[in-house]
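User: quick one - fold this with guanine bound?
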Amino acid sequence: MSIRLDGKATSNQIKAELEKEVSSIKKSGKRPPHLAAVLVGNDGASLTYVGSKVRSCEKIGYDSTLIRLDDTVTQQKLLDTIHKLNNDPGLDGFIVQLPLPKHIDEETVLHAINPDKDVDGFHPTNFGKMALGMETFIPATPFGIMELLRRYKLDISGKHAVVIGRSHIVGRPMSILLSEKGNPGNATVTLTHSRTKNLSEITQKADIVVSALGVPNFLTADMVKQDAVIIDVGITRVPDETHPKGYVIVGDVAYNEVKEKASYITPVPGGVGPMTIAMLLQNTMLAYKRNAS
Ligand code: GUN
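Assistant: Sure. C-alpha cells for the protein plus guanine:
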C-alpha cells in the first residue's frame, strides 16, 4: 500500500500562503499581482486549464486577464498581442496556452515573450537559467512536482529517477531539476522517450518514476519496482458516456494496480495538475516582486 501524494491539498496550502501575502500587499495600499493568459481557439482541455488558472487568481486576490483569440488568428496578430502585454507596466506575467493552431510557429511565439514576464519559464533565457541552477521562472509542472517532493520530505538524493517523455514543458526540465544540487535533487536521472529501447527494464530499476507521456494507463505494476515513488503527469481525456461530461481524465499510470506496489503515488486527478496551477501563481508572485521593486 502506498501513500497518496495529495496535490490538491498541497496546492491549496500554497494558494493559502499566497493569499495571505496578497492580503498584506493590498493592506499596504499596493496593487496585487496581475497574471494574463492568452488562449487561441476553443480546444476543450485548454479552455478548462486556462479557466482554472483564472479562477485560482481570483480566489487568492490576484488580478487576472483572459485574452481569447480566434483559432484563425494570424501569427502576426498574436505577436502584436504579446508585444502589448510585454509593454504593459501593470501586468507582471502572462502565459500563452499551448498547444497553438498548426499555422502558428510555437517557437517564434514563445521567444517573443519578455523573459521578465515569462511565468511559464519557456523562454530560452529562463530555460537556460533554470539549467544553470540560477533563480528564474521554473516551468510550473516540473516545479510543482519538485515542490510536492519537498513538502512531503521525500529524499531523492542518490536515487535513480526515470523520466518518461522529453517534452520542453515537462520531461526535459524535470530531468534537469531532479539531478540539480539541492533538496529535493541530487538524483541520478535517466530521461527516456519514444526511441528508448526496453523501457520496462529501465523503469523496473527506478526508485522514482515521473511519467509525462500522455498514454492512459501506460505504466503498469509489472513495470515498477517495489516501493518506488510514482509521479503521474498524464491527463488524457478518455470518452466515457456514463460520465456527465462525456469523458473522464485518465493518467499515464494504472493507478489501482501500481498503488499496491509504490511507496508514494500521485492520483489523477488531484495530483500534479493542481500543483501546476499553484506554481504558476508562485511564479507570478516572483514576477510581481521583481516588477514592483
Ligand atoms: N499546455 C499544457 N501545459 C501548459 C503549461 O504549463 N503552460 C502553457 N502555457 N500551456 C500548457
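One thing worth noting: The radius of gyration is 19 Å.
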